[in-house]
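Model it.
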Amino acid sequence: MVAHPEAPGAPRTRTYFYHRLALADRNHRWWMPLVEGTLLIAVYLLLSIVFVVVLAFALPDAVAADLLDADQLDPAVFFLMFGSVALLLPSALVARLTLGPRPLGLIFSVTGRIRWRWLLTCFGVAAVVYAVVNLGGIGLDLLGGGTPTPVRPVPGFWWLLASVLLVVPLQCAAEEVVFRGYLAQMVGRWLKHPAWAILLPVPLFMLGHAYDIWGQLSVGIMAVAMGLVTWRTGGLEAGIALHAVNNMSISLLAMAGLVDMNETSGAPADLIPELLLNAAYVALVFWLVRRRPAVAVTRTVVLPPPPAPPMLPAAVQRPAAIAADRSGLAAYVVDPATQAYMVLPPQYGPYSVRDGQGRYVGLLDTRPAVEPAPTYTEPHDGHH
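Modeled.
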């Protein structure tokens, strides 16, 4: 949150970064994200049950066999796994729509909506970074004596491609709305510094991926990168783009037989390309934001005016006699209990004045100025 000095009479404003956007809603309360999270989980469980039941009726034999085998490159398993995660998106939106903050679009960006042009720009940047780093890695492998892996499309390639294009982006958007949106803004209600909103959701995001320690660290690196670009760009678009390009790239490579999508173990060397990918993307996004002032990174809201002092009834307005006093010596005060004026007789005083804490301020002398008494001189004729 950033406070700006205001000119006298100007509306009071506050400026918030993305993780503090919940405070832009005048009706927010500190406990609201806890109820919102409970509602999110409840809606998600309900949608998941309906989703699995519908899919089981549509593909009973395939779903039962594929779930036991758990081959992620089977079209039914792929759709079930990524589609079930995508259900987090409507669940989060229903929870936010029910409880606030308002407007609903604050979950996406400081502008209160998805900035589609910026999303596509970030998607292009992420795609270029992934292409350069991956092609560079392949080139280094070939120069080191490696042999190229032949392209072998897996069975059900076209069904998988449809899921990659339609379901995977929704799955990535859903995870960003929950981990870089809901959780970051929940932390931002209570803790001001953006580091808390960026780092605290990372362990939860890592636990959602069944990898070994090296795979978990790779996920953690990416989570930090997505948190950084979310804070710096004022919205989820840059994180969604990076997440979508990463998941779509892995899926497409696996569909072509170039990587094993079911592999859950890694190696320390896997962290190097992960660091390069995410560092390059974060640097480019930060550079683009500086070059594009139209990309809003904060939201400024007008605060409600302070409550006006209670209006005194006409019967207890300042007495006319005191109002008409031109000497500047008469005094009047308001009784805080009755809000009625109490007149301090000007012929008495001085009065000791103290502030609200009882500290001595000075003397208030309401006594009229003493006019010099007239002198009387007997008439004389000038003779002594």
